[in-house]
């Protein structure tokens, strides 16, 4: 765990989990728009690329942890599962997701429910695959969350995690850093009306153990055949592993 815990609301005395839930409840009405707008729509490509890695494994039942508004759960249907279950701690985000799924007529395949990523309410060895999109860095206890993901994954099952990382090459590193630190929080604040949410985003990305460091954590959790695939100059990465 990081020595200094990054939280959305610095003056709030609640723990990170409660603060993250509150933050996502606050920004849920504008979340999808901001997600696609601030990433110039590249986040859609990232999700498709992550699910493509899942397809050969033909998972029947997929768990989408920190599902938010359900975008990754919907993208996961390309792997042709019979069922996708999404869990999230934000009721506001889930409500937006449920409306989206209803509109698309996908209620028979995708179900979204309130749940804690670090205390998953499922039996051991329950899912063929577990996916997470931009959610693990919001865990209050990263190792605990990954251990629970490992617990509910079937032996031989696959984990696919999509998360922000940090570009390292000049000049993209400098351009991205400026955008992430100054432009993104400003636009996020204006549109979402929550000043803290889009300041927390770059702070949480900066604190996250990306690349080889995160792969080592996956290995220590028990996952095998772990891999990190950087995307778009290293803005984000896909991490895969097998139980």
From TrEMBL:
<comment type="pathway">
    <text>Quinol/quinone metabolism; menaquinone biosynthesis; menaquinol from 1,4-dihydroxy-2-naphthoate: step 2/2.</text>
</comment>
<keyword id="KW-0808">Transferase</keyword>
<comment type="similarity">
    <text>Belongs to the class I-like SAM-binding methyltransferase superfamily. MenG/UbiE family.</text>
</comment>
<dbReference type="InterPro" id="IPR023576">
    <property type="entry name" value="UbiE/COQ5_MeTrFase_CS"/>
</dbReference>
<feature type="binding site">
    <location>
        <position position="133"/>
    </location>
    <ligand>
        <name>S-adenosyl-L-methionine</name>
    </ligand>
</feature>
<dbReference type="InterPro" id="IPR004033">
    <property type="entry name" value="UbiE/COQ5_MeTrFase"/>
</dbReference>
<dbReference type="GO" id="GO:0009234">
    <property type="term" value="P:menaquinone biosynthetic process"/>
</dbReference>
<keyword id="KW-0474">Menaquinone biosynthesis</keyword>
<dbReference type="GO" id="GO:0043770">
    <property type="term" value="F:demethylmenaquinone methyltransferase activity"/>
</dbReference>
<dbReference type="Pfam" id="PF01209">
    <property type="entry name" value="Ubie_methyltran"/>
</dbReference>
<feature type="binding site">
    <location>
        <position position="88"/>
    </location>
    <ligand>
        <name>S-adenosyl-L-methionine</name>
    </ligand>
</feature>
<keyword id="KW-0489">Methyltransferase</keyword>
<keyword id="KW-0949">S-adenosyl-L-methionine</keyword>
<feature type="binding site">
    <location>
        <begin position="116"/>
        <end position="117"/>
    </location>
    <ligand>
        <name>S-adenosyl-L-methionine</name>
    </ligand>
</feature>
<feature type="binding site">
    <location>
        <position position="69"/>
    </location>
    <ligand>
        <name>S-adenosyl-L-methionine</name>
    </ligand>
</feature>
<comment type="function">
    <text>Methyltransferase required for the conversion of demethylmenaquinol (DMKH2) to menaquinol (MKH2).</text>
</comment>
<dbReference type="GO" id="GO:0032259">
    <property type="term" value="P:methylation"/>
</dbReference>
<protein>
    <recommendedName>
        <fullName>Demethylmenaquinone methyltransferase</fullName>
        <ecNumber>2.1.1.163</ecNumber>
    </recommendedName>
</protein>
<dbReference type="InterPro" id="IPR029063">
    <property type="entry name" value="SAM-dependent_MTases_sf"/>
</dbReference>
